[in-house]
Amino acid sequence: MAENPIELLTREKLLELLKIYAKNWLAHDGCWFLAVEKKLGMNAAIEFDRDAWEQFTQIEARRIKEFLGLPENSGLKGLEQALQFRLYSTLDEQFSEFEDAKTLVHYVRTCRVQEARRRKGLPDFPCQSVGIVEYSLFATTIDKRIETTFVSCPPSITNPNFYCIWKFQLKD
Fold first, then answer.
1. Side-chain-facing half-sphere of 36: CA atoms under 13 Å
2. pLDDT at 117
3. What pLDDT shows up at residue 56?
4. What's the CA gap between 104 and 166, in Å, rounded?
5. Is 87 helix (H, G, I), strand (E, B) or coil?
6. What is the DSSP string of 133-167?
7. CATH no. for residue 118?
8. Alpha-carbon distance 17 to 40, whole Å?
9. How far, in Å, CA of 54 to CA of 48, rounded?
10. Which range marks the domain in which residue 82 is found?
11. Which of 12, 125, 132, 141 has the greatest number of CB atoms lying within 10 Å of its CB?
């Protein structure tokens, strides 16, 4: 049996392919969302998107947790590490900072989803309700003690320097 051609790629080509895969995944997600939005409207598209993220974000978090070998309750340090390995982390400029020992704040400076909508002349995607599901379930899959709140996210932008900001707090 012939070798898988991906296994023959150089490190540089593998990194390039990783970005292509992430862009393809995000493009498919966007095409799906726009198709639902066009046929059923924004509210229905958001509802379906929330349902999809409820499942996907937990799958993604479990796989990253396993890949990184994170223990069951790895706290905010585990979450900080896991956030760096999300599928779109190769595409969007983002970073996390500790506010204190029990609070991690995650900043998303660039967002391909919002930037693509703007290029198409569409309004920002009001992603706050989807983001709450996405980030909350990702965090609790990493550590059940983590509570998530949004700080800034469309349609409620409180800091125009970032597309969104999320706060994670470790509860006892």
1. 15
2. 85
3. 96
4. 8
5. helix
6. HHHHHHHHHH-TTEEEEEEEBTTB-S-TTSSEEEE
7. 3.30.1380
8. 34
9. 10
10. 11-170
11. 125
Instruction: Supply the DSSP symbol for 8.
Output: G
d(CA 153, CA 93): 15
Residue 156 domain-assigned (yes or no): yes
For tokens 């995650």, name the residue: 106
- Where does the chain have alpha helices with state H? 11-40, 42-68, 75-83, 112-119, 128-142
Q: What is the pLDDT of residue 68?
A: 98
User: How many separate domains does the chain show?
Assistant: 1
Can you say whether residue 69 is alpha, beta or left, with left for phi > 0 and alpha for psi between -120 and 50 degrees?
left
Give me 45's structure tokens. 């598209």
Has residue 31 been placed in a domain?
yes
Low-confidence spans in the chain with pLDDT less than 50: none
Alpha carbons 136 and 15: distance in angstroms, whole number: 29
- Containing 103, the helix (H) or strand (E) segment is strand 103-108
| Structural domain includes residue 101 | yes
3-state class (DSSP) for residue 98: strand
